[in-house]
Amino acid sequence: MKTVSLRLAIGLLFALIGIFLSLFANARPLNGSAIRWMNDVTDRPNGPFPTIQLQQVASSFASPVTVTNAGDGSSRLFIVQQTGEIRILINGTVLPTPFLDIHELISCCGEQGLLGLAFHPDYGSNGFFYVYYTDLAGDIAIARYTVSQGDPNVADPESHYPILSQVHQPFSNHNGGQIAFGPDRYLYAGLGDGGGSGDPQENGQNLGTWLAKILRVDINGDDFPGDPTRNYAVPPDNPFVGIPNALDEIWAYGVRNPWRFSFDRGTGDLLIGDVGQSSWEEIDFQPASSPGGENYGWDALEGMHCFEDVPLGSCNDFLNGGSTLPVLEYSHGFGCSVTGGYRYRGVLYPSLRGIYFYADLCSGRIWGAIRQHGGTWLGQQLLDTQLTVTTFGEDEAGELYVADYSVGVLYKVIGEQPTPTPTPTVTPTAAPTGTVTPSPTSTPTATATASPTPSPRPTPTPRFRATPRPRPTPPPRPGAR
Ligand SMILES: [Ca+2]
Ligand SMILES: [Ca+2]
Ligand SMILES: [Ca+2]
Q1: Phi and psi, residue 406, nearest 5°
Q2: pTM for this prediction
Q3: Ligand 2 center to 469 CA (angstroms)
Q4: Span 306-333, pLDDT tens digits
Q5: 245 Cα to the center of ligand 1, angstroms
Q6: Which of 54, 159, 251, 255 is disulfide-compatible with 146, CB 3.0–4.6 A?
Q7: Residues 6+ apart with CB under 8 A from 433
Q8: Residue 57: which residues within 8 A CB-CB, separation 6 or more?
Q9: Which residues does residue 270 pair with via DSSP β-bridges, in sequence order?
Q10: Tens digits of per-residue pLDDT, 88-120?
Q11: In angstroms, rounded to a whole number, what is the distance separating the alpha carbons of residues 85 and 99?
Q12: Side-chain half-sphere of 100: how many Cα atoms within 13 Å?
């Protein structure tokens, strides 16, 4: 009898340890800091691709170009309007007063305007956030603002503090526009090649300019006390620090117009949607372990194809190890301008986990991509919409959103509902009385939502299919010519 009790006790102990471990394994970081990195996320296994739907969550935005969250546990979404305002969506309601309105400071629109927004990783305590815009002269500016003292839903308009100003933009197109904090808490900014067509100034391969680059700066310092247009420090491990004729702020180069990029909140990897010229759109991948310095090939290459072979024959070097080729590309038979998105790390739709979402601005097609074992990526069209997708966005929990530029509607990306886990049946132990205990939980009914998407086809990246679909081209095409 004593042995049995001991075995029971040991068994119980192991069961408790098991329950504790499983709880721990399933624990997700809570809201409250802007960036949550989970290094234990493994790559999603091969397929199958999920079906998705879009669910409208808000409307009446004017030209939305960025959607993000503050990471402060407030569950708010911040929607950037190209015209210069940041709107707040909370509990399904768009607040009437903008969080910030800087329309008087910006040039707009076309490819110009207020283009990017990122919250400081410690926003909850310091109230700092950063905006990326084209100034009245059409040049690139990144500035910091601070939330107001009295109202968490209104920023202090007087708190303008330049981070990087007056970056000369020779043409009105290819202004880049994405800013985001990386897992290293540095601020990354994507700048276009300066515009025009075919990179006329050859900025892509020129390390002496910030144009056509991903920059990486430390916004918590100022290495240039005598320069009011530069208020940041250079991370000492930036790849070109100490290299002659190369600017210290450069993290990666050879991009044409990296309109939207994102860090995978699961792995810290960087995924860049780089808008092509007239034939190929691409997604570039940089692992979190990268020390930086990647050359993404523009303008020798457009996607995985020769673009400007100068000097003659040099293009082959770019194709054969001399540059970092995209992991995904598609031809202009499927659109005209890629909108890079996010890798889904939310909780509501397990079928979407690990899928990288991206879209085309002109065709409205939305793709999902899976990173396969070995590191290659497989893309699959998930929806063919009539939307003008300027941006994706993540809320604090990692759920994904898509903005339609033309009519100003925000949608949530919806996956298949997970099958409800049946409630474990508790076997009643010899009920002493005859009372009937009602079942504690009635199993929720799974609402089977009919998906309008065609069933997933095992087609590889869309570059192999070419069925152009005529559709009026809406503005702004981030990098049309
Ligand atoms: Ca050129
Ligand atoms: Ca300074
Ligand atoms: Ca490229």
Answers
A1: -65, -45
A2: 0.81
A3: 50
A4: 999 999 999 999 999 999 999 999 999 9
A5: 20
A6: 159
A7: none
A8: 89, 92, 401, 410, 411, 412
A9: 263, 286
A10: 999 999 999 999 999 999 999 999 999 999 999
A11: 7
A12: 30
